[in-house]
Amino acid sequence: MSEKETNVQTRPLSVASSPHLGTADSTPGIMLDVIIALIPALVSAVWFFGPRALVLTLVTVCATVGSEWLYRKLMKQPTTIGDLSAAVTGVLLAMCLPASTPYWVAAIGGVFAIVIVKQLFGGLGKNFINPALGGRVFLFASLPSFISRYAAPGRDFWTSVWSSADVVSEATPMAALHTGQLPQNLTLQQLLVGEHAGCLGEVAALMLLAGGVYLVLRKVISPRIPLFYIGTVAVLTFLFPLGGVGRLDWMLYNLFSGGLMLGAIFMATDYVTSPVTPTGRTVYAIGCGALTVFLRYFGIYPEGVSFSILVMNILVWSLDKAFLPHRFGTPWFKKKAKEASK
Amino acid sequence: MVHRFFGGVHPHGNKEATERVSIAPLAEPVPQVVLPMSQHVGAPCRPTVQVGDAVKVGQVVGEPTGLGAPIHASVSGKVIAVEPRPHTNGSPVMAVVIENDGLNTAADPIPVPAPVEKLTPEQIIDIVRQAGITGMGGAGFPTHVKLSSGLGKVDTVILNGAECEPYITADHRLMLESPEKVIQGGRILMRCLGLTKLIIGVEANKMDAVEALRAKAPADVEVRPLRVRYPQGSEKQLIQNITGRQIPPGGLPAHVGCAVFNVATAAAVYDACYAGKPVTHRVVTVSGRAVMKPTNVLVPLGIPLQTLVDAAGGFKGAPGRILSGGPMMGVAQFDLSAPVIKGTNALLCLQNREFTPTPAGVLTCIHCGRCVGACPMKLTPLFFNQRFGAGRYEELEGLRILDCIECGSCAYSCPAHIPLVQAIRAGKVEVRRLQAEAKAAAEAAKAEEEAQKEASVK
């Protein structure tokens, strides 16, 4: 039988609802892009805090991926580690821990993030708060003494891999800002490249921004949430500087200190826990920004990014409901509707 | 002022295979044609011929029973059956089957009472109705109804040459090879609606067609290149793009003073008014990697899809999926004896790697919001899928599920490849069922109330 005579009726034809085309993008691909976008920040963390930063990241990734695999196995559910979302959670969790965090503490954070925050609610797409932030805040609330010593960059480069007991801790820029002063002996350049104490992924503001640009170019995230988040913080800190420092300096130090860049670019943009509607996203991001400044000014902790995002995470469902896009073909104002019907 | 429609996607065009292939008629006459009585939006037609009747090309074989347009024989010969036959929409439909005598004996042309330039709007509408012209872009809305409902309300008339679906080049070739027909047909429609300006919108990936049209366009015709973005050719989006106006929910183009006709519809109007010819043929693109020689063919209506495959040189390898229409909105076919109808603009035979199969297993929505960004109607497809999956049908109407035009941009952009359009279609069925139930319940309550009133009066 020649090709031409092929009778299609005898071969299975696939039938499905339109559309018959789909994007080449996939969930694992998107997650991989997020991991790639975090690499510059991770590299600078290793540069400043030594290989311990890398080992710590590996520990959290093993904890998140391992606990997801084990949980799904025990619950007799299909394995989902292939979607790479657990790996992203692992990297992000490490990014918001100080380099001196004991490995076992980091591992507990990873397990909490995956099992309690994510899987108990049904896994990917069902959790209502960001797992990495959930893990961080859990550690912050329950084991604070282990994650509140911030190593100064450049010291104990190799020795710290095995033991973090004798780490020389230093105040973070946020601690100074919390008292209404600019951090001493810290230039803006040092702040931007990350040469100061802090969590792994908080310090290198420029590297985080580079990752953000990559995500925007790859269309993984829209710039809306980071811009409105950072913009809100910028406006509020510029309008209301604390303690007699220059407005501009105060604003810049506030923008590039602490977890703002990491939070605005990587945490607040987490798909599952941010709104889908454009207006909802704007309101969410402004809310994150306003809460961050509020907590930094009036909270008992120096930093407020984690709590702000977690609070706004809880509101996502309501924001999506409240800010559905304006209906196609309907007037914006009721008055116009009357005119049109006349 | 430049307007844009919301959202949209940009799938690969895949038009290279056929965009330079001239429209050719079939090499050999077909032995028979199957003319389904349902080729348009509205009520199916009633067959007006019986088994054994001799028919000529252009003779009416089906008369509309409600909203609709007559159906004409596309070949001459003998009626050999009037019975349900397979249809491209999936379920059998009453059809008139004609055995071709190969003579192409023509029936009397449609009477055109005056020179075309002097026809009144009513006369034009009557000719269009008699010619059985329906929207040739796919949807198949009867053109005479569009004209009569637009009389006096329309200030902008647009010819749709966007052809935004991948692969399809039937309209492209028509504009390129018969620009005169498209333009003059469009001008008849323009004059019918009492207007002095005609806009022809063509996606900018067909600049040769734009040039061909411009070369023949008189001063009252504007040929406008459009941004290459799907679904540019959707009526609502085309109007928004050209005029900035948005058709209200449940409304028609006439509500915003617009009338949109496909370029092939305009060419059919030209044939009807200048030659008295009803719709008996159309141009179909046969493409996809699973045919030997992708091509554009001018075929009589009612020929089986298999004949199109043969016209393209037969299958090359095993087709994985066969579509009537484009890959974004086309209908997957399982029976190639189904016929070409007035709205069939393409037959695509796709190899397995050319289409995206729905993945097996549980598909997880990660709430990325790409479907929301892609939706040209500003809807939230992920919530339709979510509510439908949870059985919360009563929430779907409030999310405006009935506004959906089923263009498929959401499902196309979904990284989890969730079949969103399928969920939306099923959701619409549930919403309409709930609406019908609510209506029935309200009527029952009203009837009971009145019965009680009567009882109390007695």
Sum up the structure in keywords:
heterodimer; A: 342 residues; mainly alpha; Ammonium transporter fold; globular; disordered C terminus; B: 458 residues; alpha/beta; Rossmann fold; 6-stranded mixed β-sheet; 4-stranded antiparallel β-sheet; 12 helices; 17 strands; 30% helix
> What distance separates the N and C termini of chain B?
69 Å
The CATH class of chain A is identified as: Mainly Alpha
Backbone CA Rg of chain B: 23 Å
Shape assignment of chain A? globular
Oligomer: heterodimer
What percent of residues of chain B are in strands?
Answer: 15-25%
User: What are the segments of chain B in which pLDDT stays under 50 over at least 5 consecutive residues?
Assistant: none
Number of helices of chain B: 12
Largest sheet of chain A: none
Order of helices and strands of chain B: EEEEEEEEHHEHHEHEHEHEEHEEEHHHH
Helical content band of chain A: 55-70%
What does the largest sheet of chain B look like?
6 strands, mixed
Helices and strands of chain A, in N-to-C order? HHHHHHHHHHHHHH
Q: How many strands in all of chain A?
A: 0
Low confidence ranges of chain A: 1-9, 337-342
Distance between the termini of chain A: 70 Å
